[in-house]
Amino acid sequence: MFNYYKGGKAISEALQDNPIDYLRMVSGIGADAEHLQKYYFDADYWFKPFNYGLFNDNRTMIRYNAVLNLFSMGHFSINLIITVFLSFFGLCYLSRAFAEMLPKYKAVFTVGVMIIPSVLFWTSGLLKESLVIIALGFLLFHWINFTNSKKLKSLLYALPFAALLILAKFYVFVALIPALIFILFPKKLSYIKQLVVMSLILLISTVLLLNSKHILGLDFTEIMANKQSDFVNYVNIQENVGSNIDLNKLEPNFLSIAKNLPQAYYNSFLRPHIFEAKSITSLFAAIENTLILILIIALIVRFKKPDIEKFRFILFSLSFVFILFALVGLTTPNLGALVRYKMPALPALVFSIIVCINPKFFQKISFKRKMKEEIM
User: Fold this and answer.
1) Residue 34 is part of which domain span?
2) For a surface tag, which of 6, 250, 263, 375 has the fewest beta carbons within 10 Å of its beta carbon?
3) Residue 57 lies in a domain
4) Is 174 part of a structural domain of the chain?
5) Structural domain contains residue 175
6) CA angle, 232 as apex, 171 and 293 as ends, to 5°?
7) For all residues of the chain together, what is the average pLDDT?
8) pLDDT tens digits, residue range 163-209?
9) What is the arithmetic mean of pLDDT over 297-316?
């Protein structure tokens, strides 16, 4: 959090020397000039030891802080307040996006996004997760509006937030692509047709991903394998880190990815659990995972077949959840980082479970609580 802020302060120093240099560094246009290196040297996290040929998202946060410094006069607390305020709007628009698909659950979505502990915690600081939730909320809201209204205005509103999501965390955008494509298809498709459409989208996406080296010049399987290896090496040399976990070595091929998926999903869905919580933050994450497990049990016990609209919402949400959880679980050997990286998909996971639970289950819980209060 402070590293990005200090990096932004270093970039902002150029305002006193040469405002044009500041604009070059913030915009990225002509930002590689030799005389600008002195600012980058003072900007913590500007250089990443491993980039894999992808955009350096650390620079997005540093530039973001440099822009905020124009309004905050470089005060950390003001940058933080502005970011938390924007994150709140991102969460509001995320709930509105879900409500566009299932209007009857508007109240559930509105309250739900505000009470998921990991979501609140990781979007309350000067971190990339704050930008991610801002971009995700506004992108989904305007994209879903575009699919409903077919108005060009909504599409134009969505594009800048898609760009922001790519710049903030590229892999989150990659995980979201199948859901964005799926939502373009008609609402009233039958259950079978919806399954076929999503299956084809996922199949084509997988084929494109495995052949990305020939299409984009970037081998994503190799990037994932290298990222896991570098992340493992990094956390192993850190001191006082008690939340590291063992991962099976990932090779840059489809078979290795498929073989490691069960472990990836186990880590992403179930860890940390109560017995491995070693700090307050990990304890809250463990409790959160336990509550999600309780919801899943409630789903099994009180399952209600979803209608066509709910089924569409579930496929939309779970495609994002399973892809993001796979990417995170395959490459992340630290529980703290795991909780943080999977956070953007948690609302989609929780809501896709809730909409399949018979509403009478929650009414019964509410009734029992009222009875207990009256007795007491």
Assistant:
1) 2-74
2) 375
3) yes
4) no
5) no
6) 65
7) 91
8) 999 999 999 999 999 999 999 999 989 999 999 999 999 999 999 99
9) 95
Q: At what angle do helices 76-101 and 57-72 cross, to 10 degrees?
A: 120
The pLDDT of residue 214 is: 87
Does residue 109 fall inside a structural domain? no
Dihedral sign for Cα atoms in the order 65, 71, 76, 81: negative
| Residue of 158, 192, 5 lying closest to 83 (CA atoms) | 5
Same domain for 353 and 220: yes
Separation CA 355–CA 373 (nearest Å): 28
Contact (CB, 8 A) for 315 and 198: yes
Co-location of 192 and 66 in the same domain: no
3-state secondary structure of 311: helix
Instruction: From 4, 53, 318, select the one nearest 170 (Cα to Cα).
Output: 53
**Could you say which DSSP state residue 302 is in?**
T
pLDDT in tens, 115-173: 999 999 999 999 999 999 999 999 999 999 999 988 999 999 999 999 999 999 999 99
Strand partners for 357: 303
Residue 282, Cβ density class (10 Å: 0-12 exposed, 13-18 middle, ≥19 buried): buried
Rg (alpha carbons) of the chain, rounded to whole number: 22
- The helix (H) or strand (E) run that includes residue 150 is none
DSSP structure class, residue 248: P
Number of structural domains (the chain) is 2
List Cα–Cα distances, 82 to 106, 122, 126, 169, 286, in angstroms. 26, 15, 10, 20, 30
User: Which of 54, 74, 94 is the last residue before a domain boundary?
Assistant: 74
Biggest CA pair distance of the chain? 75
Q: What is the mean pLDDT of residues 203-223?
A: 90
Please list, residue by residue across 248-266, b when 16 or more beta carbons sit within 10 angstroms of its beta carbon and e when fewer do.
eebbeeeebbeebeeebee
